[in-house]
Specification:
Blueprint: H1 2-29, H2 33-42, H3 51-74, H4 79-98, H5 109-114, H6 120-147, H7 155-218, E1 221-226, E2 231-234, E3 242-244, H8 254-259, H9 268-274, H10 277-284, E4 289-296, E5 300-311, E6 317-326, H11 328-341, H12 352-363, E7 371-378, H13 381-388, H14 390-408, E8 412-416, E9 421-427, H15 431-444, E10 455-461, H16 470-491
């Protein structure tokens, strides 16, 4: 608001300078009034006017024009410079009237000229000073004018008649001019208000475009979509040319029509659904952005985003930025972190968390006939820890993990679910063969601190237990594993409870 007032004040000052300049030129032009009246005298038009009066008029106007010119150079925007110009014109009219140069409507010229300053104080001054000079001059010339007419009984009667008409005309002129001046000032103020709003909008738009230009450096593709004017414009292109969007036939922008050719075929339908331009506005309503990740057949993962940059009061997007950015490295880091969170640090096998999540998914699916759940436990780990230390115990666990990983291979996944406990989800039609492979690998293993690793391996298959749930199979596999463990300790003559 303060800026708006300051700009309007600056406008008034500049306007005063311009109007004063024009009024000074008008004063210099009015120097010709003397010669013009002299021509009328010579032509017999002005019978009661002398050439001396013509000279006086021109001299007085020259003096006033010079004084006003000096004021204009030193105080171009001051009020008293304006007042001097208006006063000079009023004095000129008064002198001409006093010199018997008949003027009527010209009396009201000065108040009307004062409207150009767009200042009501200057207007009031002009009206009042004009009326005073009009009143005095009419009174001074009344005897002369009354003598030329027979319809008035006296000088006072003539004066009353003329000044009454001038007064009525002055009131009508004042009301009309004041209304015109007020409408003009209000109009100018409204223009400045509109200008301020436009400048604020332009500034906001420049800031947004600055942000968008910065975004254009970050993203692979940046498209400005205008739902009000139905256009799209790529901010990465040097020309930044706007293209029309025909919503009656067009479901995707030109940018996405190009991008879709690089999307992985199995994700194409999902990509086309996400980028459907006819539904973007409704999906973005009440939101700042929507995004989805897809795979580019050349450069890997990329993220597509629609971001609201301008909206209605109801938070319906008017202008949206569509961006794509390569996130392949980010996805790889994400996968790496997930892999770490799902992996046992010591053995590099999958951990208990991964086993529980996989089992949760398996519960919701239909088991295949080759589904087998293995339960494995390392034998004698406590004895190794107690006699040879935890370094030897860790070596034993790692040896068992390697044997399991090599035995299962690509047939399934192996998990370390506890200290010396493992589980494996395997797809095989011959689980006994897998158990034999585990035993074979274990018998071939030799460590630095321990010579051998033995494991008790139990399993339960869906084919042999078609009615059993995953949890039932887990319990069956555990029971089988413990039976194997008892058999192992009996064969070696070891009292299991002591170990």
């Amino acid at each position: 608001m303060e800026t708006e007032i300051s700009e309007y004040s600056s406008f008034l000052k500049e306007n005063r300078i311009k109007v004063n300049g024009y009024l000074n030129k008008a004063l210099w032009f009015f120097v010709l009034t003397g010669p013009a009246i002299a021509s009328g005298i010579k032509g017999g038009i002005f019978k009661d006017i002398t050439y001396f009066t013509c000279i006086n008029i021109s001299v007085v106007i020259i003096i006033m024009a010079l004084i006003h010119l000096l004021l204009l150079k030193k105080y171009p925007d001051k009020a008293f410079t304006c007042i001097f110009a208006l006063t000079a014109l009023n004095m000129l009219l008064a002198y001409m009237n006093y010199s018997h140069v008949s003027i009527y409507l010209t009396w009201f010229l000065v108040p009307l000229l004062s409207l150009l300053f767009c200042d009501r104080h200057l207007f009031f001054y002009s009206v009042i000073s004009n009326y005073i000079l009009m009143f005095i001059t009419t009174r001074l010339t009344a005897p002369y004018e009354a003598a030329l007419r027979t319809e008035h009984k006296s000088v006072n009667a003539y004066f009353a008649n003329v000044i009454s008409g001038f007064t009525i005309e002055s009131v009508v002129m004042f009301a009309s001019a004041y209304l015109i001046g007020k409408l003009t000032v209000d109009y100018f103020k409204s223009l400045f208000d509109q200008r301020r709003q436009i400048m604020e909008q332009e500034k906001a738009m420049e800031e947004k475009m600055g942000i968008l230009d910065s975004m254009a450096e970050i993203y692979d593709n940046v498209n400005l979509i205008d739902f009000v004017n139905n256009t799209e414009m790529s901010l990465r292109d040097s020309e930044q040319k706007k293209h029309g969007i025909d919503f009656s036939v067009q479901t995707h922008t030109l940018m996405n029509q190009r991008i879709k050719n690089q999307v992985m075929p199995d994700q194409l339908d999902e990509f086309l659904q996400f980028t459907n331009i006819k539904t973007v506005r409704s999906r973005l309503a009440q939101k700042k952005l929507i995004s989805a990740d897809f795979i580019d057949i050349v450069s890997g993962w990329f993220r597509a985003q629609y971001i609201t940059v301008d909206s209605t009061l109801d938070n319906i997007p008017n202008m949206v930025i569509y961006t794509t950015r390569n996130v392949d490295e980010e996805k790889r880091r994400e996968e790496h972190l997930i892999r770490i969170s799902m992996t046992d640090e010591m053995t590099r096998l999958f951990n208990r968390r991964c086993y529980d999540e996989d089992l949760r998914e398996i519960r919701d699916s239909v088991l295949s006939d080759d589904f087998v759940l293995f339960s494995i436990d390392v034998n004698g780990l406590k004895r190794v820890n107690d006699t040879k230390g935890h370094v030897a115990g860790d070596e034993l666990i790692k040896g068992a993990a390697n044997c399991l990983a090599l035995s299962v291979g690509n047939k399934g996944k192996v998990y370390r679910t506890g200290g010396d406990e493992f589980m494996a989800v395997v797809h095989t039609d011959d689980p006994e063969k897998v158990r034999g492979e585990i035993m074979k690998k274990a018998s071939e293993w030799h460590g630095i601190y321990t010579d051998e690793v033995t494991m008790s391996v139990g399993y339960a298959s869906h084919k042999a237990n078609p009615e059993a749930s995953v949890d039932d199979l887990e319990r069956t596999a555990d029971a089988d594993m413990y039976a194997e463990k008892d058999r192992h300790y009996k064969e070696r003559g070891i009292e299991r409870r002591k170990h």
